[in-house]
Specification:
Blueprint: H1 2-5, H2 8-21, H3 26-38, H4 42-56
């Protein structure tokens, strides 16, 4: 919801907190990458996107922000 309302910094905090509790959670990695992109932190977003791709490998559906 925070990404949809435009509060990318707050969304980043939420996704990072979840990753502390659930390391390598693909949904949180996806959300974190999106939050970083929306803050124009593209280098960091690329690193997280790579981690997401590693965790999501083999999945037969595409992730979307609306799915979070």
């Amino acid at each position: 919801m925070l990404l949809k309302t435009g509060d990318a910094a707050a969304a980043e905090r939420v996704f990072r907190e979840d990753l502390n509790q659930n390391p390598r959670n693909p949904r949180s990695l996806f959300g974190l990458a999106e939050a970083l992109k929306r803050q124009n932190r593209l280098y960091e977003a690329g690193i997280v996107e790579t981690q997401f791709q590693d965790e999501w490998r083999g999945a037969d559906i595409q992730r979307r922000v609306d799915d979070l």
